[in-house]
Design brief:
mainly alpha, globular
Length: 235
């Protein structure tokens, strides 16, 4: 049922209003906590607040690409076209999150390092992830045959997903200007609750924002995307 267009549309349409409500709630809470509850950094000052956008969009960029790779794998193994469509719907959101992550990171870097960009391991691997998103989307539009485009993009997503753990562990594997992990680390969380709570609230907001946009994109693709009827019948 979940992997059939009719069942998927029914479930997501009924859940969309709730997703919008939770998205709005966590946005208000996250912004309030980030601007008023969270203190400025004793070294970085007010610019540290950009992390409440930068960090969650970085996490989401990695998670969405892994989701795309898993859906692509499911499509290739079980030949379920809806998995490929869902991966395509997620990719257009992921590429925006990756772009926001890079832009906010550059602004943050200019304020703390004095430069917009450095070719260190974390930044470079994140840029590669952004181009992976772009490459995935380009493959969808490169072939006139929809089935071939879906298969090519799926194979690309699976193999290029190797960059996701590289992005995550780049600060541990190589010397880098980027600060090491502050939350998912062996020594425990290294960030005060006054910053951790707003960060988690904003992360949850971005999760719900992704779900809302993913649902809307999925509906659009199922209804209007250039997938031939004979392919749809194989769902």
């Amino acid at each position: 049922m979940f992997l059939k267009p009719k069942g998927l549309m029914q479930i997501t349409k009924s859940s969309l209003p709730w997703l919008l409500v939770f998205c709005f709630i966590f946005f208000i809470c996250g912004i309030f906590l980030a601007l008023l509850f969270s203190p400025d950094d004793y070294k970085q000052g007010e610019i540290v607040r950009i992390m409440y956008i930068h960090v969650p969009t970085a996490w989401m960029s990695l998670a969405i690409y892994m989701l795309i790779a898993l859906l692509s794998f499911a499509f290739l193994v079980w030949n379920n076209v809806i998995c490929g469509v869902l991966a395509r719907a997620a990719s257009s959101v992921g590429v925006v999150f990756a772009a926001v992550c890079l832009i906010t990171g550059s602004i943050w870097g200019k304020g703390t390092w004095g430069t917009w960009w450095v070719w260190d391991a974390r930044l470079t691997s994140m840029l590669i992830l952004f181009f992976s998103y772009v490459g995935y989307l380009m493959l969808w539009n490169f072939f006139s045959d929809e089935a071939r485009a879906m298969k090519s993009a799926s194979v690309f997503a699976i193999f290029s997903a190797i960059n996701v753990p590289i992005v995550k562990f780049s600060v541990n594997l190589w010397s880098t200007l980027h600060q090491p992990a502050s939350i998912l680390r062996a020594g425990g969380v290294a960030i005060d609750n006054s910053m951790l709570i707003p960060l988690i609230a904003m992360f949850i907001f971005f999760i719900f924002l992704f779900l809302v946009l993913w649902v809307l994109n999925s509906h659009k693709l199922i209804d209007t995307y250039k997938i031939k009827k004979e392919i749809v019948l194989r769902f």
